[in-house]
UniProtKB/TrEMBL annotation:
Entry-linked Pfam families: Big_5
Keyword Signal: yes
Protein name, per record: Uncharacterized protein (DUF2141 family)
PROSITE patterns: PROKAR_LIPOPROTEIN (PS51257)
Occurrences of domain SbsA Ig-like (ranges): 38-137
Leader peptide range in chain numbering: 1-29
Keyword Signal included in the entry's annotation: yes
Highest taxon above the source species: Bacteria
Keywords: Signal
UniProt organism field: Pedobacter zeae
Coiled-coil stretches noted in the UniProt entry, renumbered to this chain: none
Amino acid sequence: MPNLKDQYFNLKNLFALLALLLFFGCASIQSPQGGPKDTKPPKVLSMTPKNQTRNFNAKKIIIEFDEYFNIKDEFKEFSISPDQEKLPVLKKRQKRLEIALQDSLEKNTTYTLNFGKAIADVNEGNVVKNLSYVFSTGPEIDSLSIGGKVINSLSDEPEKDATVMILPLERDTIFGKKRPSIYTTTDSAGTYKLNNLRKGTYKVYALKESGGGDKIYQQISDEVGFIKEPLVIDKNLDNINLQIFKELAPEFRVVDRKLNNDGSISIIFNQQLKSPKITVMDPPSVDVGKYVHFTKNNDTAKIWLKDLSFDSVKVAIQDQGKVLQTLNFTRGKKDTYTRDVIVNDNLSGGKLNPFQRFTLTFPFPMVSADPSKITLLEDSVKRTNFELVKDSVDQLKYYLLYPWKNKKTYDLKLGAGAFTAIFNAKNKDVSKKFTLESQDAYTTLVLNVTVPDTSKSYVVQFLTEKKDIIKFYPVNKNSKITFSKYPAGKYLLRVVYDDNKNGIWDTGSIKGGYQPEKVWYLKALLDLKPNWEREDPLVIPPPTP
């Protein structure tokens, strides 16, 4: 008689063995983990019919890649030129892209299928850039081309991934309304090339989109460049270069507006105003005692109203005495507001610039300050001979004046209620520790400027390495300018060819048909050493044509 117990253990061992085999079998087919990130886009292995086919009569085009891919933003990225009423249909089949032509084709015509950034690999989204397919329904293929470079008009840097488009002159009216069918994208050096063009007259544009990627110019967000005169393409053209710029809004508009949770009002404009003013039109009593703060560029206003008993207010935005727009703001009767008086300063890395006053900045207009609630220690010794001074214009600023000394450590304590803002809002305890930066850490540069034409005007600008403006000097003759008392470090020099003599760089306009003012950079980076004064020549060249 069989031993049931032995049979039970034999079955148990068999199941255990099978489980182990299954486990290790599954483990053996897992993909290896880690390794370098895939940065290569799909590669085209074949095109059927072949690219550049003449006497084309197929209904379907097949492009085979070396890996699986996705089709992204087909209706934004894919186009066919000349345009067709019924667009081709794109479908992916494993590693093949099938393009089914839906419309009839014109005789003796060269067609270009432009895929933009529509094709990308599955895993990392690496895009096949500037993929195109060209065919002709006749015996010849259009072979003209144009190429050039796109640069940023102000930074003078090449623009990567800018869209360069051409529009037949008779279709120029679609710019800014519909996307083009003939376009390409610039490479990392800002260069572009458009091939397989037919003889004709075109308008040329460059576009750097901040979002959306629909290749339709949006003035509020995009940068643009253009060739003013129509371009006749009857031969291959090189050096068709474009400068892109941010165009000023042609008409004033409020971009954003809100009643903040601290009771203030914020308004953002689409233009930099020259002489702005804010007035509460209704109720007029609320206009009394208001405080308005404009940003440096006069493109944003913040308003504090002392009287918040209103249900609604009507605010007028004015510039140079002219009312540009009126806005209505409403508040609920039970609305409550939170006001935190946060104290900011002009310290940098725990050090005070010896050529600047110690500055305290607040988020609300200040009403008063109580020096008795402020404690200043110099090397742990209490000092009382400091002075608090309110800015004569900017109600958001106070200055703490004291004969600061080198090699001393300062501890500043702003006790709760040391500063009182509107609505009786007060600061909480704040402590700051700092030293005075030595004057030896600062530098001076003297430039002997030579201008190419004394009938013209120029603006010499000192910039950070990130090309932010630190200081500028308008010049119209050979002169000497001094850049002094600035931290040692690396700086850039830029010259604006100030055509309209207004002392600033002016952008261009498509509607006005004019380009931005030209700029020139001193190619060498200025490395200014600490505790050092040097004198250099600056010979401004004539502007390039």
